[in-house]
Design brief:
Elements lengths: L1 H4 L6 E3 H9 L5 H11 L6 E3 H15 L40 H13 L7 E2 H9 L5 H11 L6 E2 L1 H15 L15 H4 L19 H6 L15
Antiparallel strand pairs: 1-2, 3-4
Length: 233
């Protein structure tokens, strides 16, 4: 469980990563909010290993009809069940291939933007995507990470699904949600899942450490936004 949500073994799971994972339990947001409050009683904004264990136990309790409170931790219940995950420890329904975090209405809007940028052979190069990303006014290091995460096959171009991932990440970032360091499995387009492992640790992220913002401003072709520059990939 912990490896799936914390593949780099930092010892803590951030709120956004934990929320993505816990939502796969199928429990309501109200119950998940109670679980989070009990697992993070000090309001640290992340879960350590003990807190994550508490969250998993409470998910199992809720799924088996028990109240969500600390006394329920002593109950004997089956392991928690989560959907849309590749871990053999968890129950995976047949519908996992079709579930995608990009909503249908979002995808329709993103597809329209994609087509307006005149893709060639169904692909957009970095210099065509760059103005759209820059228009968001997000910091360049964030935009570089968005590009790295969305160019899933690392060919220097974005197809329609990869572009939708980029736009989804940009919109989330504009809503003050942090851009993840690794692409969550639920965000990998179904069309890409057969071509690559779907567990988080297998998604390549380049570069490992983006350069300072100042160097990005002075040399926009440098570092993590290289593929976005017209002289890049």
């Amino acid at each position: 469980f912990v490896f799936q949500v914390d593949p780099t073994h930092t010892g803590r799971v951030g709120a956004s990563e934990a929320a993505l994972f816990l939502k796969k339990s199928g429990l309501s947001d109200i119950i998940l909010g109670k679980i989070w409050d009990l697992a993070d009683p000090e309001g640290k904004g992340y879960l350590d290993k003990q807190g994550f264990y508490v969250a998993l136990r409470l998910v199992a309790c809720a799924q088996n009809g028990h109240d969500v409170n600390l006394s329920s931790l002593n109950l004997t219940v089956p392991p928690p069940k989560f959907h849309d995950t590749s871990s053999p420890l968890l129950i995976t329904p047949p519908s996992t291939e079709t579930h995608w975090a990009v909503r249908v209405e979002e995808k329709a809007k993103f597809d329209g933007i994609f087509e307006s940028l005149l893709p060639v052979n169904g692909l957009l190069s970095g210099d065509k995507v760059k103005p759209v990303l820059m228009n968001s006014k997000l910091p360049l290091d964030i935009l570089g990470r968005v590009w790295d995460l969305s160019d899933i096959d690392k060919d220097g171009h974005l197809d329609k699904d990869e572009f939708a991932v980029a736009m989804h990440l940009v919109y989330r970032a504009l809503e003050k949600e942090p851009v993840p360091s690794l692409l969550p499995p639920s965000l990998i387009p179904p069309s890409k899942r057969k071509k690559m492992p779907v567990f988080p640790g297998a998604v390549p992220v380049l570069p490992a450490s983006p350069p300072p913002k100042d160097s990005l401003r002075s040399t926009p072709s440098h570092g993590s936004v290289n593929s976005l520059n017209s002289t890049g990939s």
